[in-house]
Amino acid sequence: MKKMITVLSLIVCFQANAQLKLVDGLYQFQKVTEVQRTHAELMEKGEAFVQQRADAYHEEVDRDGNSLSTRIAAEFHSEIHQKTLYFTYTIEFGEGWYQERVEGITIQIGDDIYQLEDATLPDRTFAISEASFVINMLSGSLISEMYSNMFSEQSSLVDAQFPRK
Question: What SS3 class is residue 128?
């Protein structure tokens, strides 16, 4: 069991290393992950994951064929300000893979709202780093959800093939 948790933790660490990238003047995050699951299984797990986050922020989930999208908010603090990060989180599903996209990243400080790219954003370097951290943690949580039960299902198959005496 300890080895399984270690392996899963390593998978999450290696998968969660995607970074925010500046594309056409806007920060974006995009990552494709392969998972040994059917399209239907991925959709089911992804929908539960996105719905849970949407419910936490009182947001709606947009369902469009093979993709799910919602608005996410996350609070964080710097030495100077309390900030709220907002972004649109989209997951597209295929057979054995899913793609995450994050777009429309804004930060609210008090009554002021800034694009992450805005040069006037206070503590901009910290804000970009924190946004990257929040998004990577979300991505790591999703991959953990996608792999949940997979190991117990495989263990059950092995136990059925090789019953203990």
Answer: helix
- Taking a C-beta distance cutoff of 8 angstroms, is the pair 57, 72 a contact? yes
Which one is predicted more confidently, 80 or 86? 86
Q: Enter the pTM of the model.
A: 0.77
pLDDT computed for residue 149 by the predictor:
67
Q: Where are the domains of the chain?
A: 27-139
Examine the pLDDT at 159 and tell me if it is beyond 60. no
Task: Report which residue type is found at 15.
Answer: Q
- Residues 33 and 150: their CA atoms lie apart, in Å, by 16
Q: Which of 4, 3, 22 is nearest to 103 (CA)?
A: 22
- C-alpha–C-alpha distance, residues 131 and 85, integer Å: 7
> What is the spatial distance between Cα 83 and Cα 76, in angstroms, rounded to a whole number?
5
Q: Where are the beta strands (DSSP E) in the chain?
A: 21-23, 26-34, 62-64, 67-77, 82-94, 97-109, 112-115
Other Cβ atoms within 10 Å of 138 Cβ, number? 19
Residue 76 CA, distance from chain mean position: 17
Terminal C-alpha separation, the chain: 20
Domain 27-139 has CATH 3.40.190.10: no
